Amino acid sequence: MQFTAILLTQALLLAVGEASKNACGVEPCAQITQMTSDSTNQDQTTTSVPYELAYQCLMSMPFDKDRASIFLNQVRKILEFQSTIDILKRYKMPATDILGGIDSIIDKVNNTSYSSQFEMDLDISNVISSAHDGHLAFTLCSQSIFNFEIDLPIVSISSNGLSLPDVYTLNDAKAQLNGVKTVSPIETINGTAVAEYLASYAFSQSLQDQDAQYNRVFPALARSVTNTPISPNGIWTTNGAWTEGSELSIKYSNGTTQTVKKTATPVERYFSYDNGTELYSIHCLPQSISTETASDSTAGAEQASEVAGFPDPTLGDASSIAGYFSDLTGLEDTAIMFLPTFAGSPSQVAQIAINFLKNATAEGKTNFLIDVTGNPGGYMSTGIDMSRIFFPESTPYTATRFRAHETARYLTQAYSRDYTDDSSNVFAYKETVMPNQTTRFASWQDLYGPHDILESSSSSLLANFNYTSSSTKVYPINGYGTIPLNPSKALFPAEKITIMTDGDCVSTCAFFVKLMKRQGVRTIAFGGRPKNAPMQGVGGVKGGQSLSVGYVTGFIQQANTLIRNAANTSSPLLTTSQWKAFNDSSPSTEETYAWSGNLNLRNEYDPEDDETPLQFIYEAAECRLFYTLDNYLKQETTWQAAAKAMFGDSGCVNGSTGGEGSLDS
């Protein structure tokens, strides 16, 4: 399909740009270009510009109704693959109708209610974020041009980890730590109680738990070593989203007030655009020659083991996996494993984990603490392997379903013949197994179903993948395939293992915690809103498979090739009418805008409940503590506090134990 016929003429684009000029007749984007040029000449790496000026620059991007209409119809077809799309209408925080939201945007496009690409992209982003699903994420062309900033770092701190925390500026909190008595906590922001304001500010985050969302506002040492888009200083100081108003009114509990202006920083160091039309053309329209440079997937692997806020590891590297023996009071009998990600080299992670567990037993450690603070996930096989390293005699249970819609049905039919060994292709029934890891599907219909599950048309239940065929030296799973069982028995009992989180545990991290909890491992959560109440240990997405939009369109392209090759044989894969229906229901593989996206292809289920996705099950941690300032500055002090609470007798936040879904409920 060609889109040249629907492009706005250059004259019309320029006319839209003219409307956004300020009173001096200078384009907002051109003003930012001049500011960043002056700054770059002074060898500064970043340049802050006025918040409103960045907004005016974005609003000066033109809007192409015809192109937008085609794009949104493709988005709607892509979202049919989102596994939770039906269930979200009835379950969540609050319920949301994603397809209905896209339909409303389509109506606005048809009624020419948008004047700027940025306006439409903002509406799309709001619809997508309403799912609170870390696997469902769109990067739209106008949404990655500026970061909006507030130069006032803040922290939520408790005096002892048990009392309700107050919000301080980071500088005031440090002054208080140094003995200054006159500092005061923040009472309100823009006239709203500070905790309420910050919870609302964080609500758009792609986490399903409000306490985990709240933690993202503030700094976290663990984020400095994880491959996550969330700044180590929190979303309060660097946020890619536009929020209304260019300044904040801060009131402190001692009655003093402060006005803080927001600023914006271009993502590109060399921002150079004369107007919104040029910005739109470069960022939004597909380019014939990619301007992206290839990145080395191993970049950062040689990162130094010394990380600010962390002690030197006993074994491993804090950027991937590290083991620690600490001399702090309360940690003498505890081995600590820091797991900031599951995206490191699977074989290296496995070997370090095995070696550290054996070292810990040799050193006489009786307790084991696993820190997954801020873990954004990674390889599912690594999460399964890690659970098997701790509990080699268990069989990790995985069970998923994909959404059984029209395009998925034709894909499953197209991939019904043995063509490749691709365990990531959920639609190829010969490559999949049932949750028991042994039973195969008899046909593509046997896999596809469909089944009515919570008013959602769903596939049959299948494992994430076949452990035996997927386990290799590169992606090991302890005791499967060619990988020997090592260790052959658990070195620490479940009651002597604790997992520590801040709720921001996502995807594979969430699944690893689930596998460990099934063995009886307890969790302790830190931070969250100032409430004497339980908090979830896992507040991130619990979906069964994250898949990029590019991967989806790749499946569609490959399926069309298979269908075409079989079309003139004695046994075609699809009839002519079915093939047409497949392509009519499928998203186009042509590029309309320069954008990217991810979705959750499969739901994950517990062995006791094959209908309710884990995504919609609340599971409180067994204990909760609030952060102290020491915890923000030294990660080792959080390990100390966690160990004293879980292996000692220092206690948990009042009212935080025995919560819904906890092992003690």
From TrEMBL:
Highest taxon in the source lineage: Eukaryota
Region: Disordered, residue numbers: 293-312
Short name of any one Pfam family annotated for the protein: Peptidase_S41
UniProt keyword terms in alphabetical order: Signal
Domain (CPAF-like PDZ): residue spans on this chain: 148-266
4Fe-4S as UniProt keyword: no
Domain Tail specific protease: 335-524
GO terms of biological process kind: proteolysis
Signal peptide start-end: 1-19
Protein name from the UniProt record: Interphotoreceptor retinol-binding
